Amino acid sequence: MRRERSAKIIATLGPASSDVATIARLFEAGADVFRFNFSHGSHADHRARHDAVREVERRAGRPIGILVDLQGPKIRVGKMREGGVILHAGARLRLDLDPSPGDERRAPLPHPEVFRALQPGFDLLLDDGKLRLKVIDCGRDFVEAEVMVGGKLRDRKGVNVPDAILPLAALSPKDHEDLRYALTLGVDWVALSFVQRPEDVAEAKKIIAGRASVMAKLEKPAAFERLDEIVELSDAVMVARGDLGVELPPERVPSLQKQLVRVSRKAGKPVVVATQMLESMIASPTPTRAEASDVATAVYEGADAVMLSAETASGHYPFEAVSIMNRIMVQVEKDPHYRQIMDAEHPDPQATANDAITAAAARVAHTISAKAIVTYTTSGSTTLRAARERPEVPILSLTPSISTARRLTLAWGVHGVQTADVTSIEEMVRHASHQAIDQGFGAVGERLVITAGMPFGTPGATNLLRIAWIEA
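Below the sequence we write its predicted structure tokens.
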């Protein structure tokens, strides 16, 4: 099954989409990677979904990626009197460690680490930003704040502190348990929530130890202060616009999205745009025109993938959501202006032999009108370098590792195939020809551009470029 587009689709699984038949339909509609949201569902639920995805993969004969999204630490108020109270603008509210139910004058906040990070003048956002407070005074176990935007404060609503770097690890005790379980399943990607600094990514990578790739979710303003370092440490990044949009004015989010896509493309790391892509399709069979433009914008920017959340996890029209997203992306990539943008915003190759070979492959493919760039890869690095170039032709990635093939389902323009490794240049050309024909990329007599590392099977050593005619 060959996609007629280069950007990829991530679809979240949930109550509306957990059985084999439904997942198969989502895959056929265009989903390339399936996301498991560990904020919801039991381990048994996720194992069943994992097994279902792998069954769809077996039937389709195509690698399918699985992304586990960890919940991250959650800061919430405690219980409120009668389940919730009305806070009025201009009133004062005290937040403290006292666990007794809150009222109009005080509320429990069982997170001493938050008090340590606050200063007068900082903003506190409650219930996804629906209620806004301004810190007047604070200490090690309390904060006095003025209500700037009022409303009803209910039990266990979330608290955001956009002005502070909180002394919290990105992995909560729940995340550690979930991560251990996810790794036993053999997932391909782990999305790390609440990333504020590079050390958060380093901690996760140390625990994962190469058993999955790490995706840093950028949802805290503080993360953008050390963006280059976070991108460098991560295997991929995601702009999580929902939480980011809570802590920042909405007018700032689009520019940060563009910044993250640009930095990630320069680093050669896959980048995902997520949250509220087709939000209205949770309850409607068609998206709004603004949502269609939002998806198109992410594709025009050069994002590797766009993500559906509740649209496929719990919405009434999961197949329609994937299908229309697929159609929007195909239409964008047919636009001549899209190709102009990819070329105009093309990052310079790094000063390495690997990058020089890969950049040359994209140029050669254009010059000779090749049907595809074929990359032989073990770790995936050769293929990711090719994807960084955003070539005009598709990338046919051949690897002996099924885990590598699955991880590459996230990368722009890549069609991965698990296949036996080769041992000679003649075998390399012959095998590339057969796969190009089998996968629908070319016919006998048409040309391919092939990159590989020699000796064959050496991870990260892209040092060979070959032009070849497809042989029978």
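DSSP finds 16 helices and 21 strands in the chain.
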